[in-house]
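Researcher: Please translate sequence to structure tokens.
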Amino acid sequence: MPEVTDLELCQRCNLRPITNERPGTSDRLCGDCLAELESEMNALFRVGGALMQGFLSVFGAMPKGVSGELILRTMVANAMSGSEHPEAKALVARMRAASDELERELPGGRDNPGFASQLEERWRRLPLSGVSPPGGSA
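Model: Translation complete:
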């Protein structure tokens, strides 16, 4: 991938210089666009998760103690787990690491009644890309 220069503009907004280069991708974004993309994806998980929860509840298939958002995030992680794309692999690895860490921390691990809600909160805080959003950490 070519080096980022001061003259290159973000491929999303075409207004601001590139400040983030995402390894393994052709995405070359400014910090503002990366933050917007992260925000849009998290909104998709919230709204889509609510729809998923409503749909499953209508049919009596909504698991107790789990949110639709967590189900949707898990479905996306499962879909991405077979990908060879470096960013997909990295996100799935971050999600697994957060899950494994929480399992070790909580008494009873995954059987702890608070596991699902705490996992959902940790997954919400994970950056979706390998590049930290402004004020975040990868």
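Researcher: Any highlights?
Model: Confidence is low (pLDDT under 50) at residues 131-138.
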